[in-house]
Amino acid sequence: MTNFDYNASAELYSTRRRMPRRQPLGYRRFSQAADAIRFAIEDLEPELLLGAYLEVGEERFDSGGIRQLYDSAEYPLARRVVHS
């Protein structure tokens, strides 16, 4: 993931609709890709993340790509501390 612009605007889509009682994400726009990535990893239900993809400019990232961007040393935001 070289030269990824975490400050670029981003669109997050979720196409998975396996949870009938909850509203699917559908589509959400973010002014910064870093915020979209954090939302996808930290706030989306795991089932929704599996069907999600992130679009930044002309690039598209599936759930695995979103995870790689979040785990990258270049990711600019603080990550949520998970207590076990």
Mind explaining what this structure looks like?
This protein has 84 residues and is α+β, with helices and mostly antiparallel strands. The chain has one domain. Helix content is 29%, strand content 21%. It is built from 3 helices and 4 strands. A 4-stranded antiparallel sheet has the order 2-1-3-4. A hairpin with a 2-residue loop joins strand 3 and strand 4. Helix 1 packs across helix 3. The longest helix has 10 residues. It is globular, with a radius of gyration of 13 Å. The mean pLDDT is 87.
Summary keywords:
single chain, 84 residues, alpha+beta, four-stranded antiparallel beta sheet
**Strand order across the largest sheet:** 2-1-3-4
- The end-to-end span amounts to 29 Å
Catalogue the unreliable spans: none
Query: What general form does the structure show?
Result: globular
Number of helices: 3
What is the gyration radius calculated from CA atoms?
A: 13 Å
